[in-house]
């Protein structure tokens, strides 16, 4: 039996390089994706650390500002449903976080929550935003909450959408890509192999209302994941230990807070929404039935209307 197991291991080690070569998906040059996904509203801001951050600043310049932070492996495109519904009366600022979207890899290689918060602050400074509402989904929700903890004088309102940051049990369904990304050695395969089918599986795991999943959505996630430097950035981010800062300092949040959650979120269970609601005094919680991890896209009309009411926008 021992000889048989050794033979199997040797066979795998010999076959693995060939399999990686056979199924490898090449990087995509940044300029190609810029041409495809940058819009007339796109700006590229150079931050102090040299990061080239992709930002869209839309809506009336004299309107109240809502800055939105996307989740892990997503991009600012996830906020397009809200931008379309709210930019007539709000100034919507969206950005691709370090290691994501058209921002991609950053020079200092720091993808920690602290670095993400710093990128938001420096982007807001570049745009001369002194006070604004901030919202975030998933990873971005944790970033938004941490920003509100660290810079309370700059925040008028906080919106948490299926946000990371509170200690709860792991979700019932985790995308295969997330699992592989956290397995040492094996995760190195993801530097070269990123099948489109894995992207589709991840979206179908996160999203309950499958009708919003389109080929264009799958392609955007798949293309951004393969931008030169992004796969290495993603592995670096997944290798970091989770931050406990948000939960530790949650009582520091005093801004009016709206918590939006999908009742069937399999990545960050709705139990986390109730922890946020209990910990943030005066917060309001709305749970959407038959909805997964992305309420801003799955129930765009209802969630945008709830945000409009919360911010008192016309």
Detailed description of the structure:
The protein has 314 residues and is an alpha/beta fold. The chain contains 13 helices and eight strands. The protein has an eight-stranded mixed sheet with strand order 1-2-4-3-5-6-7-8, sandwiched between helices. Strand 7, helix 11 (270-279) and strand 8 (284-288) form a beta-alpha-beta unit. Helix 3 crosses helix 13 (300-311), helix 4 (113-126) crosses helix 5 and helix 7 packs across helix 8. The radius of gyration is 20 Å and the shape is globular. The termini are far apart. The model is unreliable at 1-23 (pLDDT under 50).
What structural keywords apply?
314 residues; alpha/beta; eight-stranded mixed sheet; 13 helices; 8 strands; disordered N terminus
């Amino acid at each position: 039996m021992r000889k048989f197991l050794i033979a199997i291991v040797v066979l795998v080690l010999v076959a693995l390089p060939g399999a990686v070569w056979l199924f490898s998906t090449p990087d995509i040059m940044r300029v190609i994706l810029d041409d495809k996904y940058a819009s007339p509203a796109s700006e590229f801001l150079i931050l102090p650390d040299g990061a080239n951050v992709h930002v869209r600043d839309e809506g009336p310049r004299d309107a109240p500002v809502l800055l939105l932070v996307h989740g892990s492996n997503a991009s600012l495109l996830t906020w397009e449903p809200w931008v379309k519904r709210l930019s007539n009366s709000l100034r919507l600022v969206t950005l691709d976080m370090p290691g994501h979207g058209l921002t991609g890899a950053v020079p200092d290689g720091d993808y920690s929550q602290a670095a993400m918060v710093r990128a938001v602050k420096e982007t807001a400074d570049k745009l001369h935003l002194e006070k604004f509402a901030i919202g975030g989904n998933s990873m971005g929700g944790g970033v938004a909450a941490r920003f509100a903890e660290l810079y309370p004088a700059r925040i008028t309102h906080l919106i948490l959408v299926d946000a990371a940051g509170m200690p709860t049990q792991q979700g019932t369904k985790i995308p295969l890509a997330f699992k592989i990304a956290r397995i040492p050695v094996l995760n190195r395969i993801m530097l070269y192999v990123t099948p489109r089918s894995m992207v589709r599986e991840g979206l179908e795991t996160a999203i309950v209302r499958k009708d919003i999943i389109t080929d264009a959505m799958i392609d955007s996630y798949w293309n951004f994941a393969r931008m030169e430097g992004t796969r290495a950035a993603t592995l670096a981010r997944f290798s970091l230990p989770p931050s406990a800062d948000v939960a530790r300092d949650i009582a520091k949040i005093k801004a009016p807070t709206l918590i939006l959650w999908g009742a069937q979120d399999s990545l960050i269970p709705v139990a986390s929404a109730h922890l946020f609601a209990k910990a943030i005094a005066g917060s309001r919680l709305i749970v959407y039935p038959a909805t997964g991890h992305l309420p801003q896209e799955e129930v765009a009309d209802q969630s945008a209307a709830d945000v409009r009411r919360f911010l008192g926008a016309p």
